[in-house]
Protein: Tubby C-terminal domain-containing protein
Organism: Marchantia polymorpha subsp. ruderalis
Amino acid sequence: MEFPVIVDAKYCSPSEVKLTVAKKVLECNNGNFVITDSEGHTLFKLDQKKVFLRELTVLRDDGDCPVVSIHKKKISLHDTYQVYEGESSKELFTVWDKNMRDTAELTYEIQLEADSEPTFQVKGDFVRRNYEIIFKESSIAAEVAKKHFSLTSMITGKSNYGVLVSPNVDQAFVSAVVTIMEAIHNENKEKHSGKHSD
């Protein structure tokens, strides 16, 4: 099945790609949130150090150029995340929770701007960072799991998990989805602990 190019064809690889999501263990709210390749090179990083989505978050490449901007919108009873190209007003896709149940077992739906119905789903255990991004309910676009580490990132003293991106899948798209899932998990953890951080 052919995957669509969502952000840019330059972020697609003909072979399977292993990415690592790294964040400093001791400084969760002030540490850096970066997504690296298997060699430990930074591919994407958050505009700000906190992994929380407020009204606007920008994911940048290693040269500080904006790749996508993520807007959090409060629509009806659940949060919706709209993702735009760079810092423009060109919308690429929207992410929302399908069931509005307990966050550990949610299914998220992703609708591309050009489509009339959701094209991707995100399913799994978000608390344990073990979930899949599924294309048209049949093909795995990316698998997120603690087991997909690279040795380089394991020895940097950061809290890591891995992302296995299928061939020809847009890595910037996957990274934006992973960033949204990380932020949702962090915000819910803050709510449940009774703390709130700006």
